[in-house]
Structures are given as C-alpha cells and as structure tokens.
Design goal:
The chain is an alpha/beta fold and 220 residues long. The protein has 2 domains: 116 residues, Rossmann fold (3-Layer(aba) Sandwich); 65 residues. It has 8 helices and 7 strands. Helix 6 runs antiparallel to helix 8. The radius of gyration is 26 Å and the shape is elongated. 16% of the residues are buried. GO terms for molecular function: ATP binding; ATP hydrolysis activity; metal ion binding.
Length: 220
C-alpha cells in the first residue's frame, strides 16, 4: 500500500507498506501443493499488485488468485469451486472471511482471529500457526482411515457371523451357535472397534521441518 504524506497540503513524502508473510507460509503452501496434492487458492481484499506479489512468493498460480474481494465475492469463489466438485477448505481470520468460512466444506479459523470467524469455523487453529492446518488434514485422514477399517471389520463380521447365528450350518452339520458364544463374539468385535479407534490417542504430529531447517521429505 502506498502512503503519501502532505504537509500544509504539499506532498512531502511517499512510502509503501506491506505485511510480511508468516514465517511458515511458504513451507505450508509448498507441502500442500507438492506433498498433499492440494490445489491452493488465494482470495484477498488487497489490491492486485499486492496479491500478485504474495502469490509469486508463495508459488500460487495467477489464475488461482482473486484480489479486491469483498465478503460476498469470497463466497462466490467458494461456491464456484464447490460447483466443480471440489472439496473446499477455507482458512481465514477476519470478519470479512466469516461468510466464506461458513460456506466452505471445511472452515478453518486462526485462534488469533475474530470471534465471528471462529464461531463459524469447523476447525480453529488455537496457536494461529498455519502448520497446524497440515496437522489437521493429516489427523483427519488417519481418523477417516480408522472409520473405514471399522466399517470393513463390522461388514465382514456380520456377513460371516449372522448366517451362522441364524442356523445356516445346522441342516448340513447340526452345528449351533450357543447364545453365550454369540454374545462373546459380539463383545470381542466391539472391543476391536473401540481399541482400533483409541489408537488415535497415540497420534504424533508429523515434522514439517528436518534437522537442517528444510522441508521434511517424508511429510505425509
């Protein structure tokens, strides 16, 4: 942003101001695009030159940059992406971001942001560190994997156990499943599902940076 200083109506100085990028911003965007295969967009209320400068620093494609966006313009962009069958996550911290956060499939607010932004978000990054967004995506993927494993186990268990419990083997083998055995099997199945889910308590966030300060090559 350019500022003109005038003294007694006479322009005396011109200087520019700009917000510095967050220290972790470049690493986070790089990991999102290169490692996690997430397409990154930038929607900002800043002027085009500022938006272009930031996008270049973050290696965001120019066609994925929207500048001078008002709150409703941000909503329209989110809706446009959703209409193309994209799953959209929106990260913001201001009042102007709140409508887009609410409209996105996953709304993410920074903990240092406004109360209205946090109130409309699905996820709040308490530490206001963008790296936590990567961790949120990673733990969500692991939790979803646990859900799929539990459903697969339940499907297999019921497909095999229910016919036996109903007496499907009795005509051929006269084998019966005593109620106490059936109850025990159901209990063991439930224990497996609960135990598998509780393994998430052992979750450890992945490292974004390696010992040399570079981006961790093995990041999920």
């Amino acid at each position: 942003s350019t500022v003109v200083v005038a003294i007694d109506g006479v322009p005396s100085a011109i200087f520019s101001l700009r917000d510095e990028l967050r220290p972790e911003a470049q690493a986070v965007v790089s990991l999102l695009q290169d490692k996690m295969k997430v397409t990154t967009h930038m929607i900002t209320g800043d002027n085009p030159s500022t938006a272009e400068s930031v996008a270049t620093a973050l290696n965001i494609s120019p066609e994925n940059v929207v500048s001078e966006a008002l709150p409703w313009g941000k909503i329209e962009r989110v809706r446009e992406l959703k209409s193309r069958n994209h799953v959209v996550a929106f990260i913001g911290d201001g009042i102007n971001d709140a409508p887009a956060i609410a409209e996105a499939d996953v709304g993410i607010a920074l903990g240092a942001g406004t109360h209205i932004a946090m109130a409309t978000a699905s996820v709040v990054l308490v530490n206001s560190n963008l790296e936590d967004a990567l961790i949120a995506i990673d733990i969500a993927k692991k939790a979803f994997w646990k859900v799929r494993v539990n459903f697969f186990w339940a499907l297999c268990y019921n497909v095999l156990a229910l016919p036996i419990a109903a007496g499907a083997l009795y005509p051929a083998t006269h084998a019966k499943l005593p109620p106490i055995v059936a109850a025990s099997m159901m209990t063991l199945s439930s224990i497996f599902v609960i135990g598998n889910s509780l393994l998430l308590r052992r979750y450890r966030p992945p490292h974004v940076y390696n010992s040399g300060g570079g981006i961790e090559e093995d990041f999920p």
